[in-house]
Every structure is written in C-alpha cells, then in structure tokens.
User: Fold these one by one.
Assistant:
Number 1:
Amino acid sequence: MSSKIRILVPVKRVIDAALKPRINKTNTGVESKGVKFSMNPFCDIAVEEAVKIKEAHKEAVESIHAVSIGPSKAQDILRTALAKGVDTSTLVDVGEQEIEPLQVSKLLKKVVEQKDSNLVILGKQAIDDDSNQTGQMLAGLLGWPQATNASKVVVEGDFVTVTREVDGGAETIRAKLPLIITTDLRLNEPKFVTLPKMMKAKKKPLEIVKPDAYGVTIEERLEILKVEEPPARSAGVKVSSVDELVSKLQELKAL
Amino acid sequence: MLKLVFRAGISKRAYSAKAVKLTVETYPNLQRGDYGTLEESDLTRFRSILGDSSVFVDDIEGYNEDQMRKYRGQSQVVLKPKTTSQVSEIVKHCNDRKLAICPQGGNTGLVGGSVPVFDEVVVSLSGMSQIRSFDETSGILKVDAGCILESTDQFLAEKGYIFPLDLGAKGSCQIGGNVATNAGGLRLLRYGSLHGSVLGIEAVLPDGTVFDSMHSLRKDNTGYDLKQLFIGSEGTLGIITGVSVLCPARPKAVNVAFLGVESYEAVQDTFSKAKRELSEILSAFEFMDRESQVVNKKFLKAPHPLAEGSDEIPEYPFYILIETSGSNKEHDDAKLEQFLETSMEDGTILDGTVSQDEAQTRTLWAWREGISEASQIEGGVYKYDVSLPLSKLYDLVIAARERLREANLIGETDEYPVVDPVGYGHVGDGNLHLNVCVRRYTKEVEKVLEPFIYEWISQHHGSISAEHGLGFQKKNYVHYSKSDVEIAMMKDLKRHYDPNGILNPYKYI
C-alpha cells in the first residue's frame, strides 16, 4: 500500500513576465511602483502540474498546499492558485523585503515539516532574480532526491518518473517519494481559471503567518551593489551585394 | 473606417497562392476616367522631386492588392515622399498632368479604398514616419501621417499616455490612414471617435496647396471646423501628411474578462449591467457569436479560454469580452469581481474567466481580435460593418445566414462557396461586424448578399458602414444611409476642391 501524497507548491509574486522591467533611478533594483505583478510563470506551471496529478490520481493525492513568501499582496497569487485547484494555502508575510534563495529554502523546509508534505513541485526559477537555486537548496536541507527542469512527470504509486530537459536532449530519472521537482516551460500549458472556481476559491483557507512563527530569522548574505541595463546592441548595416557582404564579414574577421 | 487586419508579420499570401483577380476584371463595367497616362517624363519629374530611391516601379504588387485579396489595381508606380513639401510637389504635378492618385497608408483597409483600381499613381505615406512632438503636460501628440499606430502607442506608453484608438491592425496601419478613414476600433466606447480626439490636420489639397491646422487648440470656435472634412474623407479631398491628437493618460490597471452567455438578449443584459456597475472603468465591451470562435480556433490553434483545456469550444451561443481600465487596481478588481459574481448568481452570464497576467490578457484579446484575420483563412471574406439599433444588431447575421442557406451556398465541403457567416463587434457602439467567410469570391454569393444586406440595414435605420468606410466596395450604396441632399453636398465639395477628380477616384461617392 503506497502512502498518500501531500503536495506542496511554493509560488512567487513577480513583475509580470510580459512587461519590460525598468531599472530604478538609484540603480539598486527594478522599478516596482505602478507595475503589474503576477504569478511567476514557472510557478504557474508547477500549480498546473500539481492539479493535474491530483486529477489523475484522486485516491492517492490527499491535498495540495500552496505557500508564498512575500508581501501581503502575494495573497492575490495564492487566490489564483486556489482557484486553479489548490486546496489550502499559506502566506509567509515578509513585507517588501527581498528574500534570498537560502532563506526561502529554510522557510520552505519548515512548511514541508509542518504540512508533512512528501512531494514539492516548484518553478525552476523566478523570472525576477533568475537564481534557480531554491529547489536544489531545499532538497539539500531536507536530504531528499531532486528532479530539476522537469518536462514530464509520471506518478506511479510511491515512485515518480521525471523527464528532464538537459543539454542535447532529455534525461529520464525515477525516484521514490519524498521528492523535489522543479518545473520547466514545456511541462504543461496553464489553463484559464473559470469564474465558478474563482468564486469557490474565496472560501478556501489562506492563512497568513510571519517568518518568526517558523523560528527562522531572515538574514541576507548578499549585498546588491548595482543594477544596470545590458549594453544596447549597435544597429545593423544593410549591404547591397554579396561581394559587399563578404568584404564586410572579412573586415569583422568573421570569415 | 478602416481597420486592417492584424499582426504585420503574417503575410496574407501564406493562405492562398491563387492570384488576386484584377478589379477591372471582376467589375467589367468599370470605365477608366479621363485621366492622363503615366509617361517616362513623369517618372523623371518624380525622381527629381523625391530622388531615385523613393520612386518604385518594380515589385509593387503589394501596393496594388488589398489585404483581403479581393481587389487588385494596375498602378505602374509607387511614390514614397519623406516630407510634406514633396507630397505637395507630387500632387501639383499630377494635377497639372491630370494623373489620378491613390493615397495609401498601411493598406489594411477592408473596403478596397486603399488600392488603385486602374493605373493611379500610388502615393504611400510609409516614408513619413517621424514623431514631430509630444507635450507631456497637455498630452498633445503631433506625428507624420505614416507613423504606425502600434509603435506610436509604444512611444506614448513610455511617457504614461495612450493613443485614443486601438484596433486589430495596429501593427501595420498608419495614423494618417486611421484619420482619413475615421477608424473606430476597440476603445471608441471609452475615448470617443477621432472627430473628437484629433485636434489638427496637415493635408495636401488636390492642387498641391498645403492645408495646415496643426496648431489648433482644444477649444477653438473660430469659423468652420475644416479639419473634420478630412476625417473620414478616405483620401478624396486631400492627402493627410500630419496629425495632431489629444492623448489621454494611460490607465495603470487593466483587467480583461471573457464570458459565455446563453443568448443575444443576455449580451444586451450584460451590457446594461456593465454600464451601471462598472461605469467609469468600462473601456471595451465586445461580443462574438460561437461561430466566430469556431473560425478563430482554426487560426489560433489553441484551446478556447473557457474550454478548461479541452479541445472543444463550449456550447454557449455568445461570448463577451469586457475590458476595464482605471488608475487603482484594488478598486477595479473589487468592482469587476462584484459585477461578475452577481451576474453569475442571477444567471445573466453562464461562465467566464478573468486574465491573471499580461500574457492571458493578450490571449483573451486574440480570441476577439483574431476573428478578422481568421475569417479569411479558407480563401476570402465578405465583410459588412454596420451600425444598427442594439436590439436588432444580431438579427442581421441570422437573416444573412438564412438567406445563404436557402440559396444552398453554405456547406462544409469545397463545392459550397460559403464556409459560414460569423457575427461579432462593438456592442458598446452598436456596431456589428458580419463576416461571411468564403472559400472563394463568386458573383453568386455577392448577389445573394448585396443589395439584400444594405436594404435590410436601411429598413432598420442602420448605417451601411459604421467604421470601415465606403471605399470601392460601398460607393454605390451610400444612398442606403444618406439622403439626396447630403449626397449632393458631398459631391459639391468634392467637385470644388478636386475639379479634375484626381484624388482616389472610382471610390467613396
């Protein structure tokens, strides 16, 4: 008899992926005032996958819990997650402070222990800091196996088979629960949430706690010195003939 | 007015390799006007005005064909002036030589107004694409006529402003063309028509004189408001070279909801309710019939937003897209949520979704904006763009569908010329788009549709052209919407300012 699966999905609120971020005037970060925030796209994929697994294995999956570590406005993305089919949720309210992956992982470890989760599905990275570290660090702290950059997940009893996107192809690995999975873009395509589900989500549990409730003190180890735009690409040139193209390429030592 | 099709990147030629029939072959009764014929000396003159690189005589098919692949002219030369004085010199020369001119913007028009019929000289405004000035306090923007709508709006976005017009063809259409055709579009409900937001116009008259009202003020009651004559004149009174527009502040919070309802009555009920409850944040209210979604699905090749991932389109007969724009996200979210919840509870709407991020917002809009381009993927489309009293709006689609069925022209296989008529449009403005999607253009279909549709509209006190304009397609049908006195005044004006009739002939009135 295989054990029940309790899924944890950590989600992050970030500047909308479709918008072009602007660097603030003091060059210490990106401008966040008056900017639209949404769920990190990789987290969206993680939520979708958790819900898909639950739909496909109604008996085996006991619950899906979502957690976000961020400002109080991150409640919005937890509501979205609940509308998509997550059962319960927690906001760890850290205010406007940016939290480094190690701190996030320490907090998540506490949540995993508290919720007795045995499968964590999370985005491989957040599109704001592009760290791509949280899943790996959490696996390290918990001493669990990890399957990163997943493009396919198949659950069979206590075992999970994950196809990973690696350089030059796909790698298939299999592990026994408990397990950490981080999601890649090709894993699934998140669906629109319908109104009845959004309305139902308002009645689902969303608890708000402070980080000290987990006995974790947030200490930053990194200092951001400067944020700047990448250098602008210089404009291309038009050539009028193949000969001119060849000579230009030679000039640039490209031939 | 014109409303082009959409997304510049996708070439219409991808759909069909068949050559577009010459307009004069489709309409053999057309007579070429008494105009001069292009000679080598004219080209020499054009080259001396514009320089060699702005006079095109080869590879000009794209300027002769309209984007619906319905009309094709036989122009021998395309001119791309860069300044207003160049336009003036070209027009003066053409007037002296009695050479007919077809002014052209992004060539996204839907009534054949932007392409030549015979051998008119094409004057393309694409070479005039500079933003002249922008006043960040008043929001007054002055641009060359050839500025692309979308890039101009992006420029404004950086400054916290928005262009008061948005339409499916934004990626290719030009502001001069928008104004010349009095384009309506998706946000007319919120920002009103170009007759209100355009403050000034610079245009070259048929004799080469430059009309300049670019310095106009928002309030100015001194004499006739002449610029209004050019708005919606479709290039028959002058070539617009510059436009001054009042731009509103860009909304900070935008939400899009996509809903399914059970009847056209429910569309109207939802609209009344949205006006009452969303009031000042309501910025677009669009409806689509299920048939339009079926056609669009073939084009977008994605699951429908309300399908919850399945490959079917849910069985709701009508869909609605609502956009809200405001300055405070929490306020707007709460209002929209309340509106949607009560509408679900009282049964006005049956299902729906709200975009959770910018990518979803764009996807939801694509299910409305894509219909225009999707309508012609099987071969072509007969487009009717009409204003009607709201309660009668959809009856026209039902009437047209019945008539085509009776004539046995609709079917799923290739022997039937018609795929399906689809209806959608701007409920907020009483504006319906009836697209009869066809596999090919045939006289048979045209005879069943016209003048039937125009007569039907006239009987129900509608307009035969709400926003696409008259162009070539509707020239002979103006009398269904305008009185003899009105038409006579229009003809007087045209004769007075363009006695040789050189500007955009064979069209309009």
Note: Chain B touches chain A at residues 252-253, 258-259, 303, 305-306, 308-309, 329, 340-341, 344, 349, 351-360, 362, 364 (CB under 8 Å).
Number 2:
Amino acid sequence: MVNLIIDGQHVQAEEGWTILETARYYGIDTIPTLCYREGLTTDSSCRLCVVEIISRGRSRLSASCSYPVQEGIEVRTNSRRVRQARKIIIELLLASCPNSKTLQCLASQYGIKELRFKVEDRGCILCGLCVRMCKEQMQAGAIGFFNRGVDRRVAMPFHVRSDVCRECGACLYICPVCELQCRGPREPGDLCNGCFEAIRIDPFPSRD
Amino acid sequence: MEEDVRPEVQVMERYGYERSYLISILHEVQKEYQYLPEQALRNVAAGMGISLVDIYGVATFFKAFSLKPKGKHSIVLCMGTACHVRNSRGLLEEARRFLGIEPGDTTDDLLFSLDTVNCLGACALGPIAVIDGEYHGQMTPAKMERLLKKLAKEEGVRK
C-alpha cells in the first residue's frame, strides 16, 4: 500500500494505481478528464487532468491520469495553480473546436469569460479517443493518426473506407467534439457561458 | 513453390518479417519504387501482420517517405534561417515559376520534384539547392534558372 495525501485527505492506494484512479476511488471528483476513459489505454494527450504534485518540498504540475502514486506525495487537485493551467488548456482546446458542447460546458464550469486565442475550427482536438476505441474495444483499427505536427489528423488509410471498418459508430459515440452543438445563443467563436450564468448565485439580486 | 517477385515481399523476406525493422523495410521499398505505392503498403501490412493504419501512420509521419510518385530529378531547396536571409525565397519562386509546381509536388511528366527542407546543416554555403543529391551553394535565382534549363535540355523538354 502507498500512502499519500490528496486534497488534505490521507489516502491509501494500491501499488501501480494512478493519481486519477486513486482520487476517483476516494470520491474526489474535482479532476476533469477528456482523453481518459476506463477500459481504454491512457494517452495523456488532453492534459486536462493536470494536478499539482508536491514531493520533497517542490511543487509541479503533472497529468494525473498517467502519474503512478508514490509514497509520501501530496496532491492538490483543485488549487489555484491547477485551475489556472486547466483554464488555459480549455481555452486552447476551445480555440480549435469552438462548437463542442463538452468544451463549452467545461469553459462555463471554469469561469472562462473570453477566448484569448485565435479561433480556428478544426473539428478535432486530437484526443485519440476514437482511435483507441476503434483499436482496443472494437478490435478493428480502422482509423489512426496521420501526418505530423500541425498537419496531424485522424483518418482512414489513403482516405478511403477501410476494409476493417464495420461502421459500428463507436468513434462517433466517444468523440467529445463531433456531437450536438451547444445551444447557447452566441456568435460563432463566442463562449456561451449559459451554464455559468445559470449556476451563479447572486447574493444581492436586483429587483428590476 | 514459385518465388514471389514483388519487391516489398523480397525486402520483408530479407528482414525476416521483424516488426522493429518496419522503417528500414519501408525505406527499401521506397528505393524500389521511388515512392510508397498504396498496394505495396497493403502488402507490407498483410505480410508483417501490422494493421494498415499503423503503417500508413509511419509512412505519413516521416518526411523521408513519400506516398506520391517522385520525379526523376529531385530539387531540394533549403529554407533554413541562414538560407532565408540570403534569399532562399527567391530561389523557391524561381523553381516554382520554372517548373510550374508547388513544393512537395512533381511535374506531370514525372521528371522533376520540388521539395523544401528546413535546414541542411551547411549554412555557410547558403542559400543551398540540392539537385539530384548534389549540393549547390551560394545560389541565386539566375543560377537556379540556368541549372534547371540545363536539366530540362538534357531531358529534351522545353520549359
């Protein structure tokens, strides 16, 4: 057993567990995830599950979905620094997929009021969920990553329908961006912030 | 049993169908065809027992592999910083105008391929053009035109 502290709570984890697994096991649900899914290998590509890890007096940010627990470390899942990092990640993801409801909702949750990055709708955040779903759960391996750097894309080989694709639709099901668009009233590239406004409790409501 | 004469099969045979040699195998297949034809990649996938997505991923990841047929003569222009400040743009413009193709493309008669690289590591010679593997340093658009004209003349085409 490994002893560690998560958000001030002393917890015990099995050897080999990740910080994310441990946190969820103890009901700490302040770590948002996007590219992590139970039953699939971890990719650590979205970085949204970033947490602050304090060990030997030093604090650093790391992706909790792939960080194995260590004896004596202290983890903060929702500190100011972590929230700041997550805000930037969400903003960057939104800049490449402004119509994703998942991302818009996350932006509302984290109180992001404006997008500081140039919005360029690419329709994909390259989280790799569909690729792993296809390969690991559906045993097909019909789609994959191609090219490199800014040209990286998810596609089928030679851009023709693959023989191994059974059109099961699992890739569409798991995709966090190719879903119904957020219905909030907004201009293209705007943040809807509908949920943000809705959940905010104003202690001094005005009467007009 | 008749021997399989397809080059990719012979290459795989030579490497013992070992998964870790995939890049070397693709290199040799490319040497045979001058590029990586779709059917060859499919044959490699089937022969090695690797899914086609993985092989296609590798083939598109590395700049050394080309999925499009390459021309007989390769023209590579360095676009690195040192070459850039010495007018490599002008060289590219000239090659583009002369061949009528964009970087990464090949002329329709399969004679010339134009490519750009980010640095050849010979900055003192900049701007550099590599034509059929031969380095030409301190290039100017005029020199570029002369060299291309010479090549075109050898091939008997008018440009």
Note: Residues 2-78 of chain A form a domain with the Ubiquitin-like (UB roll) fold (CATH 3.10.20.740).
